[in-house]
Amino acid sequence: MGYELNFGALLEYQDVLLSGLWMTVKLTVVSTLLGIMLGILGAAARRHRNPFLRHGSKAYVELIRNTPFIVQLFFIFFGLPAIGIKMTEVEAGILALVINLGAYLTEIIRAGIDNTPKGQIEAARTLGLSSRQIFIRIILPPAFQRVYSSVVSQCIIVMLGSAVVSQISVQELTFAANFIQSRNFLSFESYLVAALLYLLLAFLMRLIFNLIGSRAFSREEKQS
């Protein structure tokens, strides 16, 4: 018995689908920006002389990298209210995505920092730059450039992983696909469209990141 595709039936729910797509975009933009900032701070803490910061950052990375994302999400949304910390499902989803992305980017950026030639650091100290100035001006820019492709890939992975936040009723793309197929029972069409939209988002993210990277890094090379 053949199966007849019926994508036309999805048009009735196009507003739901577009709303879910827009929520996924918002989750991705916010979590990416905050996650990159957290990753930079975490990488700086991994190299800090203060043992509390250094070991605390390492513990954070190991905890997040060795536990399932869905458990982290449930802990934030269902667990934290038990100690009086309450937030909306969107806030919980963003926090979980930022914490998860930050942990992975901490290690990625740290790897780039570790490859910084010691001669550059010594030269900067000779010029009288402070440790903060050395990190921001001398260490971070080339380190970030070295690992930029890995940073981009990890951000895309987190965008795709944002589908998990539908489990706490965040009305993003996967939530929308679940809602649509529960109404018209067109599971094949609903999830295929959702998958294609995720593919489109991943392609656009990589394109945007590549444009940003090419402009930013070419400008740094000209300045140097």
Give the SSE layout.
Elements: H1 14-46, H2 51-65, H3 69-79, H4 89-114, H5 118-126, H6 131-146, H7 148-161, H8 173-184, H9 187-223
Membrane topology: Multi-pass membrane protein
Transmembrane segments: 20-45, 66-84, 90-109, 147-170, 190-209
Protein name: Amino acid ABC transporter membrane protein 1, PAAT family
CATH classification class: Mainly Alpha
* CATH topology title: MetI-like fold
Major sheet details: none
Topology as a string of helices (H) and strands (E): HHHHHHHHH
Contiguous helical run count? 9
CATH architecture verdict: Orthogonal Bundle
Question: Domains counted in the coordinates: how many?
Answer: 1
Task: Give the proportion of residues in helices.
Answer: over 70%
Mind telling me the C-alpha Rg?
21 Å
CATH superfamily: MetI-like
Overall pLDDT: 90
Q: What structural category characterises the helix and strand content? A: mainly alpha
Low-confidence spans: none
Shape: elongated
| Percent range for β-strand residues | under 5%
Give the termini distance in whole angstroms.
Answer: 67 Å
Count of strand segments = 0
